[in-house]
Amino acid sequence: MSNFKNEEMDEELEREIEKRKKLISDYLKIAPKIGIDEATIQKQTDLMLEDLSKLMKKRK
Q: What pTM was estimated for this model as a whole?
């Protein structure tokens, strides 16, 4: 039972990591097109990468 729960948590973590990667990719495509300045894009991207890094560190 415990092993199943760990696998489920690992799968959820992987889904969240992939979700964050897609969010970053989408943001980098859309932000310049809607007029967000480069400094803001860089700052927001850095924040999103920090969140992604934290999730990736949780991997076993």
A: 0.84
